[in-house]
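Lab channel / #folding
Pinned by the channel admin:
"Please post every new chain as: sequence first, then the structure tokens as a reply. Keep commentary short and put observations after the output so the thread stays searchable."

First post following the new format, from NK:
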Amino acid sequence: MKNTLDEWIALHEQEFIQDITALVEIPSVSVKGGSTPCGEECFRALEKMLELGKNYGLETEMIGGRCGRISLGEAEREIGIWNHLDIVPAGEGWTYPPFACQRQGDFLIGRGTQDNKGPAVAVLYALRYLKEQGMPAKVRFSQILGCEEECGMEDAGWYVTQRRAPDWSFVADCGFPVCCGEKGICRIALRSEKIMERIKDISGGTAVNSVPAHAAAVLEHDGELVSIEAEGISGHAAFPEGTENAVKLLAEQLMTYPLGEKEYKMAEFLGKICTDGYGIGLGIACEDSLSGRLTCNCGLIRRREGAVILQLDIRYPVTFSGAQIIEKVRTAAEEGGFRIIETEDDPPFYLEPGLPFIQILMEAYQEETKEQKLPYVMGGGTYARRIPHAVAFGPGMSADMRELKLPAGHGGCHSADEAQSIANLQKAIRIYVRAIEKLNLWMTGEKNK
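Reply from TO:
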């Protein structure tokens, strides 16, 4: 007699946690220029994930050392389920070791437990369960794994040049239920004049898409070098609620010292653009009914040849254009003593929520959770914006982290002490099993017969 899905999940809980831990222990920040396309650690993470898939009886394939694929079924038509194994840098201020994946109660803590290694293993276990149950896969279900999601997502575009794009895809890298659209993502680099007089060094942030938790400067004051540090509250650039940009706090401290005229203007500009996470200080604040407010994050600041370099991450609503945003930033930057030196615009996308593919995913979510939430648009960016016929679909769900007693701002996907609820991942397995079963029928025209 076969186990029910709930029994199967309970039976394999320790193994599930061990598999997530094995991936989290690999510090797979994507890097260029090594002997492998995304760096040795990303290659190790791909190898480990494919090893797990092979151990569970699924077909596996390494694709150019840049992507991997784990498949159930051999049909011509294909459903893609996308995850990424690269991570943002750990950064500073962790209470727990970032690459040990420690369990505390219902939570796993470590970089990648939320984004996106925990979800990747949840998808794998859904495929594993259906393989063990003998589901006749009438289409090919392919878990596609990349290693450049956090640094441009070029791997997704590259994958579809090496293997055809799936007929339909969902990306397991957002909150449930279905994310049917994503804001535009505009990255802008700004450079000041050569202004360093009293300020000898300045730095802050670890990634442009993370709110800086730490910023520091060294300046000359009364004939001595003084070190200044600021501690903020980190988080994902697309979700500024509850964060505090350390660059703003550093700018406030700098302005309490006697600075050169241009240095003071620079610090004043920093405070202005980092005061909120919505672009008000830059004059680019906007919103629409489909996707909400624009967000703006000054994610990196560095000194270079006597000048200051800033990197901005801007997520703008789906009914606006990146060109509009860039021109407004240009005007504000010039007023603050900066000029634009580089821009990158990734336009928004939006699919109608009434599409049958989206409705099937929604049915799986609603049947399992008994919740009637609607499809939504978000500021986060996923592979869905790089591939045709794609949406994002979980597995993020709310979780009460108070039992962890983490410092303010900790626990999020790009934050220190990134944490993931085991129970939520197990619920995600159940949702993904339902979704795959339904898609298996829909793709062959059997649904609703």
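NK: The chain has a mean pLDDT of 95.
TO: also worth noting, Residues 422-442 form the longest helix (21 residues).
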